[in-house]
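Pasting as-is:
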Amino acid sequence: MNKLKIGIVQQRCTPDRKDNIEKSIGFIRKCAGEGAKLVILQELHSDIYFCQAEDIKMFDLAESFPGPVYNQFSSVARELGIVLVTSLFEKRAAGIYHNTAVVFEKDGKEAGRYRKMHIPEDPAYYEKFYFTQGDLGFTPVSTSLGKLGVLICWDQWFPESARLMAMAGAELLIYPTSIGYESTDAEDEKERQHNSWMLSLRGHAVANGLPVIAVNRVGHEEDWTGVTNGQDFWGTSFVTGPQGEIIWEAGQKEELYKVVEIDMARTEAVRRIWPFFRDRRIDAYDDLTKRYLD
């Protein structure tokens, strides 16, 4: 299959989980109705971005798999006959929780999952409080549409994770994301952060000769503790080709769905003219496993 139609859902989230899920499912149906075979949701799409503050009550949002939310999205994938990339809060055991992307096959069965490997700890992004580091490695999920290199948000800043997914045969790099502006940042700083985000992901596309799909949430979310002014998530979900070219880009404000067609055959064509994998000096990279070279 050279041409693949991908559905992207960029949405606002509120404290009303039922409403968030119903909205996601409505957008998924619209994507499938326009021919999407693969639909991708944003990071932690069923709830607010609860990592803005440390609050033990928020662990109640997690569920063991399979669970009610897991089953809802499994059923939608089966009903519509699509491959669906979700992002769920997984309760693995008491005190062990993961930020987990679950990929459902078109028959509704789980094709595989990825547990977020890089966990940030920044003001208004207190993820280390909630999430245990992933332990499934950088392994693509095999589906009827090909091998999906699913990574999550903070992973997007690490070229090693994209490279390892590509080396394991990923045919797409997919990033469900929740990223936005800290409200007190100056406008020029906001612009630098936003541009860096897009440049980083486009760089992964170029360096690995793969299409990249980034799906981000949008809209303002209050800090329920009142400590900060909340987060403004910048949307701008986008799709690049294997040379980093922008195929489609969403706006920074609107909630939307979009079906984008990509040419999967271009990876082969691009890697023939830019043979980065051939020319890698794997005999000289041992130091990459060190924290720093003093």
